[in-house]
Structures are given as C-alpha cells and as structure tokens.
Amino acid sequence: MNGPDATDEQWEGLAEVVPLRSSSKWPSWSDHRALPEEEPAEEPRRFIVIRVQTFADAREVAEYLMTQIPVLLDLSSADADVAKRILDFSSGVVFGLGSGMHRVDTNVFLLAPVGTEVAEEATGVVPRS
C-alpha cells in the first residue's frame, strides 16, 4: 500500500466512514442549541484619559496599551522636558507593540492599540499610522 495509487481493496477494512449527519439534520442531544437565541451584548468600547505630570506616569500609559486599551495622552500640564521624555517613551511602547499614535491637539495624543481604527473627523478617512 505504498504510493498514491492504492486500490479500494487495499483500503478496505482499515477505516470505516461514518457520516456525521444525515441528509436532514446534524446529530445532537435533546437540549442542545446550535445557535444562541440572542447575540451576546458587546462590551462597551472605552479608552483612558491620562493627564501626565511626572515621568512616573508613563508606566501607566504602557500598561493600558499592553492590555489593548486606547489611551488619550494629555501632556499639556507637564513640564516641557517631562512631556518630551514621556512622549519619547510612549513612542517606543507604541512602536514595540505595533500600535498607532495620532496627534489630537497640541500636546494631546491618541495611542491606539493594534486593530483600533481612528477616523479623521471631516473626511472619514482612516489615516495610516
């Protein structure tokens, strides 16, 4: 029984083919439901707003991104040097996770995990990150 040219006689007795279902229905037990009666409710979409003031707040940004939660990063109340360090750190986290970073306003950024679509307000065009 070597090669692709095996005959029916060579296969006979090696395996028995049993159909999984009849022509009319799938096999089931009495209380089995093939489909749920209702679609499960979707979890509400959310994002976190973080207003950073110290570099220690940068870890929180990374933790949310790692759990696939978008972060609205507000650097407007941070000192310029601290804001730059946090933005550099956040850029590295975004790059490392393959996420996206979108500028919303001066010193305000949306850090979007993989799979999050961000549409521009007027055009509805999804920018590439």
Automatic annotation (TrEMBL):
A Pfam family this chain is assigned to: SepF
Record bears the keyword Flavoprotein: no
Disordered: annotated span: 20-40
Domain of life of the organism encoding this protein: Bacteria
Biased segments, Basic and acidic residues type: 30-40
Entry keywords, A to Z: Cell cycle, Cell division, Cytoplasm, Septation
GO terms for cellular component: cytoplasm
Biological processes per GO annotation: division septum assembly; FtsZ-dependent cytokinesis
Main location: cytoplasm
The keyword Cell cycle belongs to this UniProt entry's keyword annotation: yes
Localization per record: Cytoplasm
Reported function: Cell division protein that is part of the divisome complex and is recruited early to the Z-ring. Probably stimulates Z-ring formation, perhaps through the cross-linking of FtsZ protofilaments. Its function overlaps with FtsA.
PANTHER family, alphabetized: CELL DIVISION PROTEIN SEPF
Subunit comment: Homodimer. Interacts with FtsZ.
Entry's family note: Belongs to the SepF family.
Name of this protein: Cell division protein SepF
Native species: Streptomyces inhibens
